[in-house]
Amino acid sequence: MIKFTENDLYLVTGASSGIGKAIALRINELGGKVLAVARREEKLIEMRKLALHPDLIIPIVKDLSANLDELPLWLRNLTIEFGKFKGLILSAGVQQTVPLKTISITKAKELFEVNYFANLSLCKGFCDKRVYSESKSSIVLISSIAAIKGSPGLINYSAAKGAIDSLVKSMALEVAKYGIRVNAIAPGFVLTEMIENWQGENTGEYLEKMTKGYPLGLGRVDDIADLTCFLLSGSSRWITGQSIVIDGGASI
């Protein structure tokens, strides 16, 4: 069984909701210490109340879309205050559903800044020897099956996630000498709190339609959290440079 200790420090972005929230809570449940990063303090505080060990959840309010080149220094300053990191989990991101004929290059660049360039800058900061733990460390990025399975309206989102999948391969080779492993998780459609709380008249019809494309049914955030913790643990010591699809069979 996977176990972490309070000396194992992990930074999780997008930790106030959805997949990021589930990952932060699962690491906490397994005994690890989490710096939970998101833009909205109130949602981070609500998340912390759900933790099994709330004293091991540290809310950090940060807009990761601003001042991207300063993110490595920000990480360095966090280690001065809290210690070196054992793992980095990058779950923050935005989605645009926009048909090709209405795509704005300006908006497309904004999506890439959040979904790709912010993650790249954080990875750069993490791989500073003053930031990552001297014991085996791990980076996990949240990608999407949109990177490998086409969908109308998701051109730019798919491209950004495809960039993540490519990033992990080259970065994994470059940082293996430091004992750092780098992997991505590519989820299919996952039921989050927001989706489950929809009250629209077409919600049931929409979910039923989505479910038909998933041989094992729709996923839940805990499915992604469990895989993330496996990739953070020593049980996955020989896995790096992979983008692991977890989609209930939707992409096959």
UniProtKB/TrEMBL annotation:
Domain Ketoreductase: 8-188
SUPFAM superfamilies found in the cross-reference section: NAD(P)-binding Rossmann-fold domains
Xref: CDD domains: SDR_c
This protein's UniProt keywords: Oxidoreductase
A GO term for molecular function: oxidoreductase activity
Database matches in Pfam families: adh_short_C2 (PF13561)
Keyword Oxidoreductase in annotation: yes
InterPro entries: KR_dom, NAD(P)-bd_dom_sf, Sc_DH/Rdtase_CS, SDR_DHRS6-like, SDR_fam
Family to which the UniProt record says this protein belongs: Belongs to the short-chain dehydrogenases/reductases (SDR) family.
Protein name, entry field: SDR family oxidoreductase
Species lineage: Bacteria, Bacillati, Bacillota, Bacilli, Bacillales
